[in-house]
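Memo to structure team: turn this sequence into structure tokens by end of day. - J.P.
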Amino acid sequence: MARSASRTIALVTLVAVVLCGTAAGMGAYRLWHKNKENPAVRLDEYVNMGWVAWDSSWYMRIAEEGYSFTPGEQSSVAFFPLYPLLIRAVETLGPNVYQAGVLITLLCGPLALILFTLWARGRSDEETALRAGLLMACYPFTFYFYGAMYSDALFVMLVIAAFLLLERGLLLPAVLVAAVATAARPVAPAVVIGLLVRRLEWKRERGEKWSAVDFLPVLAGLGFGCYMLFLWHKFGDPFAFVKVQGAPGWDQRPGWHSWLKVSWFERVILHPTDKREAFRLAAHAFFTLLALALVWPTRKLLGWGYAVYVLAIVGLPAWSTKDFMGMGRYLLSSFPVFLTGAMLLKQRPMVLRGALAVGAISVIALSWAFGADYYIS
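Reply from structure team:
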């Protein structure tokens, strides 16, 4: 009997949650006990501490205090509202703000991987879907699905659910789910155009004529639009989330310096003063270029809709970043490339096994590093 891809991935994900949570907790233990005056805490608290770092504090602040915006300074408006709103809702059930954030990720991350495997099975066969699920589960930055207090797991889960519903002919539910998703991350154009092109392609594959209803995916940007309206009403600037990216410390100002990746070339190739930083930035650039290289194979294997979606979901942040930092995490949204990769590696089992082995080790190691407060993504 053939293995059930989704059940296998569910088991793999459970193991990954335990292993990565343990690694993050060990990282937090190391960080906490660097100061010998810190008191001992419960073991479960180390795990929770291990998954709360860097941007987690922004989500905490939004959930607890709401939004703020000071032109020219780092401000919470850079972070979209869906995740902190859910944190606030879960808090009402008893957990504190950090526990709530981690619990949401622990629910959404594994569910995203299971939904991805179901989607992949609909576009291929059981074994290929299993390989695709394993590739995604072992991708080094998938540790953000296993507990980290970030919005990525929530966003990816909703986007995959939207495309899964679309493939099953449920257009309106797909658009509604996607509209919720675009309130979580500032990449609404990618979701909108991906759903729209795939819907039109889906109809053509069945020999059906297009109608006005098929253009409903344009409404998937409502979550994004509602956040802009909120910023306009509260701060008088619907583009505050864009403008704040140029604040000192973030320094992601739109312009040729960012578009040509001058900072990346200086820090990685021309004047690398920190070898660890240079390696980190090179790794993010590598994964970005790999995802972009898979756009055309995705077009051939999965169609124009998914190719356009991948190009947009990767291209938008890659274009705007000054040094590719964070792209490894953002690429989790480009879920079709994992199925494309599985299809391309079907006749290369040794390469596939090697990629899975390296990925599995990396995702655990990065979980430890995240818990130890190293700047990962």
